Amino acid sequence: MTPTTAIVVTSIAAPNQVMRQLAAGVVARSSAFFVIGDVASPADFHLDGCEFYDLFRQEQTGLKTAALCPTRHYARKNIGYLLAAKAGAQIIIETDDDNLPNSGFWGPRSRGQRVVCVRDTGWVNVYSYFADTNVWPRGLPLDEIQSDSPAFDSLQMHEADCPIQQGLADGDPDVDAVYRLIFPMSVQFRHDRRLGLGPGAWCPFNSQNTTWWRDAYELMYLPSDCSFRMTDIWRSFIAQRIAWANGWSILFHEPTVLQIRNEHNLMRDFRDEIPGYLNNRRIAETLEGLNLASGVDAIGENLRLCYESLIRIAILEARELDLLEAWIEDLATIRKSQRSPVQPIPKC
To answer: How far apart are CA 301 and CA 290, in angstroms?
Structure first.
């Protein structure tokens, strides 16, 4: 990590072991750490090495996103992304307060990758390349669970531009409620593989251990007009589709965190995932049919086209566009203010 790297977490809990380790790692590397609170966050939250933003402090930022984003929603993490970008971060790493970093989490990251890639396959279960058991990522259509993916040894090596990189999580990884209700949880993924997801290959990725380079920041937008269990999954589909237009690949790499999952009500998770079980395939088909422009400067308009298409098919309500516009405007304002050389972000 470098002084121009920032970590972003949203949390409603007091500092725990994970948060303390993240803060210590950031201090040791002169990076930055933004923690975004919500209604249930403790009023006396304090952790050396991090910048904590409660609801009042979020409102004081002047960000349009902070004024419009609903409370009690994971999408408030958008405010943390904007604060990290405003501070000059060239790389943002997002994670959660139940993902314990291992040594690999703190290692250097490279946007350019020489990696085996899967392309033009439709849906692919990326977890199948990293585990011998039948495990799948949250958001994979249920009727694709038994589908075969191309053999790893049959895939071609490519020079891939990967400004979005999904790290896996050992222990209690990101799977859906159906998996957790049926199977015992203790998954160990391979640490000796990486995989690029290219155009024409769909696989959901999450917000638990994900690295974003500056060119892709606009794609970090988490929609608020959906459940907590779907916001990062639907974001991932939109990000993948726009990445195709730019010739980018999504990198999936070895686990760099151990998830010690916070307590969840699995039946509530199941309920909140039902819109995904029923609609994820339709979302991908809709996005795949769009005509999108290439280039970083076109990402904002591409986002509008993607969200408008999901509103047309009644996946989201039209009110989502108000928050999306606030997000696009906030990022544009930040970039305009940074046309002069970017200064290193301040130490916490």
So the answer is: 12
